Structure formats: structure tokens, C-alpha cells
Amino acid sequence: QHHLLSDVTIRGFVAGATNILFRQQKHLSDAIVEIEEALVQVHDPDLRKVLNPTTADLRFADFLVKHVTENRDDVFLDGTGWEGGDEWIRAQFVSYLHALLAATVQPDSEKILSDFGTAFVAAWKNTHNYRVWNSNKYPALAEINAR
């Protein structure tokens, strides 16, 4: 199955693999995420530039970290409560992604798209994923404030 990993016509990804093959043969993967070491290694320099977080991305991450790590005196807000809890984090990512998607379909949204990374958005618009997503209409996106 090693040949499947290097076949460029296959769309897919591997997540959660601990196989040393991925560390030794870097051409088989775009990135390696080391959870224990809090490290993300992106092998391709061009891809690394596209994935570089913007100032808005860093603010979003700081916002999440601040709310997750705040000391809470209330026993009912110990990570299972709403703000800072799992569901709250998921809701923040959903809002973030909805704002990105809304910005891609709204006119004159260059400034907003730059918050998500102009290079990232341009690269995403060249993917199969974007073509599939863009082939459908999402009227509710017009009502989302992309800011």
C-alpha cells in the first residue's frame, strides 16, 4: 500500500499515524503533527507560506486559549460548561468557518478575506474541495456577517 501514498491521483489523507515511515520519507506527507511536542512540521516551503497564520488567526487562537484557560470558581464551569467548554470551542470554529465561507461569496470582501490569508484563500479556490463546495448555492451565507 506504500504506492498509494505517493499516487497524486488519490485524494485523501492520513491522520493519527505513528508509523516511522512518515518521518523518514517526508515526500509521503505534507505535514507531520507531533501532539506531545506541540509541533507542526510542514515540509513544502510554499505550503508553509500559505498556511502561515494571519494576525486575525492568531487573535482567534488567543481568544480561544484565554477562554479555555481562565480560572473558574464555579464547579459547574469546569470545562464542561458552555464558555470555554468543548461545545463552545466547536461553536467558535463553526462561526469562524462560516465567516470564511461567507466572505468567499460576498462581493468586495478582499479585506475580510485577507484576515483569513489571501494566499490561503487563493490556494483553497484551486482545490477540488472548493470546486465541489462552490458548485452548490448557500443562500444563508448572505446573512452571515463575515467580519
Automatic annotation (TrEMBL):
Provide the AVL9/DENND6 domain boundaries: 1-103
To which species is this protein native? Micrurus spixii
Tell me which domain of life the UniProt entry assigns to the organism this sequence originates from. Answer: Eukaryota
Give the GO cellular component terms, alphabetically. Answer: cytoplasm
Q: Which Pfam families match?
A: Avl9
> InterPro entries attached here?
ABL9/DENND6_dom, DENND11/AVL9_GEFs
Tell me the protein's name.
Answer: AVL9/DENND6 domain-containing protein
PANTHER family named among the record's database cross-references = LATE SECRETORY PATHWAY PROTEIN AVL9 HOMOLOG, LATE SECRETORY PATHWAY PROTEIN AVL9-RELATED
